[in-house]
Amino acid sequence: MRKDRALEKVLLQACDRYDQERLKDFFVKGLQALGLRIDKQAVLLKPNLLSGKAPEKAVTTHPEFIRALTEILLDYGCKITIGDSPGYEKTKKVLVNCRIMDIIEYYGLTISHFDRKLIKKNDGISPYKRFTFGEDPNDFDLIINLPKLKTHAMMGLTLGVKNTFGFIHSFEKARWHLRAGQDRMLFASALIDIHTIVSPHLTVLDGILGMDGDGPSNGRPRNLGVAAMSRSAFVLDDAVEKLVQPGYPLPITALAREHGLIKSYETVTYGAPVIKDFRMPGTMATDWGIPQPIKTLLKNAFVKKPKIISAACKRCAVCVKVCPAGALSTRPDEPPVFDYKKCIRCYCCQEMCPEGAIKI
Question: What percent of the chain is modeled with pLDDT above 90?
Answer without folding.
Answer: 85
